[in-house]
Amino acid sequence: MRAALHAEWTKLRTIPEAAVFLLLTVVLTVALSVTAAALGAVDRVEASLLGVRLGQAVVAAWAIQLLAGEFGTGLASTTFIALPRRLTVLTAKAVLLLTGVLAAAVVSVTASVLAGRILIDDYPPLTDGPLRAAAGSVGYLLLIALLGLGAGAALRSAVGATSIVLGLLYLTPVIIGMFSDLETQHHIFRAMPGTAGLTVLSTVDMGTLPIQPLPGLVVAATWAFVTLGVGAAVFCARDV
Amino acid sequence: MALDGMTFTAAPGVVTGFVGPNGAGKSTTMRVLLGLDAADRGTATVGGRRYRDLPNPLTHLGALIDANALHPARSGRNHLLWLAHSQGIDAKRVDEVLDMTGLRTVARRRAGGYSLGMRQRLGISAALLGDPPALMLDEPFNGLDPEGIVWMRDLLRTLAAEGRAVLVSSHLMSELQDIAGHVVFVGRGRAIKEAAKDELTIRYGSLEAAYLELTRGEGALK
Amino acid sequence: MIRAEWHKLRTVRGWLGGLIAAFAVIIGLGVLAAFGVHTSCGQQEGEACPAPPIGPGGQAVQDRFAFVHQKLDGDGTLTAHIADFTGIITYPPPNHDELVPGLVPWAKAGLIIKDGTKPGSAYASVMLTGSHGVRMQHNYTEDKAGPTDARWLRITRSGNTIKGYASSDATRWAEIRSVDLPGLPRTVQIGFLVASPANVTAKPGPHGGSIVQARFTQATAVFDHVDRTGTWTYEKLGDDGGMTDWEKFHHNAGLDQHGGTLTISGSGDVAPAGNEAGATIAHTLTGMIVALIAVFVVAVLFITAEYRRDLIRTTFTAMPHRGRVLAAKAAVIGAVVFTGGLIAAAITVPLAVHLMRSGGNFVIPSSTATGVRVVVGSAALLALAAVLAYAVGALLRRGVAAVAVAVLLVVLPYILATTSILPSAAAGWLLRLTPAAAFAVQQALPSYPQVNMPYAPSDGYYPLPAWAGLLVLAGWASAALALAVARTRRADA
């Protein structure tokens, strides 16, 4: 495991990909958060963390690229010759992915909250709800990273996996909008990772949400771990 | 079913030619042995153990399967560096193999810009990284210029002379002329015949003739 | 060259399959949406909703006002002075705890000639408004401003021509407009109208977007110096039978006549209906955003696959004018997506509208021209977005990055703007500047300055006109294509 981690770390630091994706995560997240904070909204905390909605796309894309990218270039066969225990490879990649995303998420969320404090009047103190929103955002981004890793491992096509995951995250509200029946709308809202998971950003009028933040994160986590399980099975079993 | 009864030996100190027409199952054999492809039935073992159970497998068996299996943005040296780290091998060894394969001068350039010949050399470097007692090279002559072919033959001969078992696949008998001490002919996923080079030259006159005679009608299978 | 590129696109089974799947998604989701729309009014499930009246122009309209009228045979005229115009607004912001005297901006009191008393029938009217001065309006959608300080109004009929005049001193009359109401019968109704639309405000919602609130209002106008005699009949036109507490306990709508002075109170509006009346034809094309992602994947792979497999060297060797090769590929992907999108949209819209209507839902009617614009425009949107994604692919040469960029440029702004995530002002700017501006082609209902509605992107109203939205997307696509050509000319294949 140590050797696998060392090897994957060397891979990561010898091409600019990881740095570009992580930098992009921070830049886009903070940029949208600051814009939203400057525009203002009823939920001050959610406005200051709005960038998470954008940052998740970069996180998912990196996670997918980290795994599916190897199949795209053909590097995967070299990796499996050097490290034939595939589950170890996947674990090593997951550890590095989570570490990187954790760092980027903590930086982005901290910067977003600080910007919110400066730009928004009456920004609430970082306790209870607001603290849950900030910490939950980091947790949500980690789950999206795992979802992306699983999708990349299961599908192997970076382009295909990216479009499916981004579609899953972003198109749910559109699909919900197609149904006029409130109950159906709430069912879909509760079932999908993007909508249910991102309730973690809300801090006011919690009663009107179709699902509360904690159960929402559980929904996102279920999606992430089921996808990762399927991905791991395909990753370990399928011929290269 | 791509393979059916592929049994042969590659002895230490000898270059074993692994020849047969395209699609005869040469690459598949190597890939199954390395655990890249799964066998429906049966086992593939290296020194009595499954490849995936070998600790630091590159120190037991060096393999070159696909010279293009690299990230184009990573430099050749860094490609070898992560491979070294995956086996707990010191970074010093990376520079040693780069010297052996003559890639020292281009090692810090993006591997994506390498010619196919340079990629083959990088693949050989990777196979030699763990200083393994056995080597398995799939079509190492592909993409080499005449000078490169001569260099590759010398290298393979030297590696065998150091006491390693060297298995080299090719669909062109001529590439293995002069260096293969032992030849395995394959067709339709089976080893048709294996024999010492001397035995073959005596019986068929030349390796080329042996190849044509033995692999007639043993083309692609499906 | 175009033939060669078409052959390439056609022969990769996954690409063609992806495109066909994308177009199937448009139809499939359109049909699903048709079944998903489910309206019921009243206590019982499945009870049909009253459909709004349809105006002479074919659009859904509001036609609810206090109508005091008498018969007019042939030509004629009506003049009156508005002595007083007041109103009441119930429980407005900020505290929603009082009844406030006042008129909403588009409260209306004036003279009207109308083709009978059926809601939706043709009319022309000259009126004083709450804060927009004197206007001449006819047939629900038309509006022309008159003087702001006039209190004397006159309306005349001569054949099919209705003229509206206004004056501040009853001696000098200014003609506001002369309008034609084709097919007007010999006998029409002439009289007074008083209407007061709901007081509508939008405030930001706690979970983004905006919450639209509408409050009951009532206007009262006193007309004197009426130059027509005879009996006036009061009618609460378009009344649904419901009454607010204000009407029950304070002051009901109606007519109060003392000598030549008529005091009329009323609520409602005579105006085009917004999309609160029901689903629009554009609703059936919601699935397009899903198809867009599949189209992006194919468009991006169409070029990045060539780089990955070094096919581009072969291509450039065979066709050395690189810029032209890129343009040819763009033309092929654009044309293929346009054709497929056109077929899919042309099937989806009528089919889904038919399904919705046969399911007992009211679908706001649109003119054929609007329908064609929505269908053809949506196909153009798909095609231009495909070219944009393709150009980004040619520029970046990385499949994942290109698809992600295309999604972030086109899909994300659309989602942020239309699903109540961003405040409407920010949403409006996203829909002006980003490629998502092109979704304006799907706006099925026009917005009217003479209707006080928060025309928000989340309700299907876009800040740019359809052609301008498409132009913004075309600008993005051609800029990306130009950059890609520049890069390809300079760089090695």
Automatic annotation (TrEMBL), chain A:
Q: Which domain of life is it from?
A: Bacteria
Q: Where are the transmembrane segments?
A: 20-42, 62-83, 95-120, 132-151, 158-179, 214-237
Tell me the keywords, alphabetical order.
Membrane, Transmembrane, Transmembrane helix
What is the name listed in the Swiss-Prot or TrEMBL entry for this protein? ABC transporter permease
Q: Which organism is it from?
A: Paractinoplanes durhamensis
From TrEMBL, chain B:
Residue ranges constituting the ABC transporter domain according to the UniProt record: 1-213
Keywords on record = ATP-binding, Nucleotide-binding, Transport
- A Pfam family that the UniProt record links to this protein: ABC_tran
Supply the Gene3D superfamilies for this chain. P-loop containing nucleotide triphosphate hydrolases
Family membership noted in the UniProt record:
Belongs to the ABC transporter superfamily.
Q: What is this protein called?
A: ABC transporter domain-containing protein
Q: Which organism is it from?
A: Paractinoplanes durhamensis
UniProtKB/TrEMBL annotation, chain C:
Q: Does the keyword Repeat apply?
A: no
Keywords linked to the UniProt accession: Membrane, Transmembrane, Transmembrane helix
TM region(s), chain numbering = 12-35, 285-305, 326-352, 372-393, 400-422, 464-486
The superkingdom of the source organism is Bacteria
Keyword Disulfide bond among UniProt keywords: no
Protein name according to UniProt: ABC transporter permease
Per the UniProt record, the source organism is Paractinoplanes durhamensis
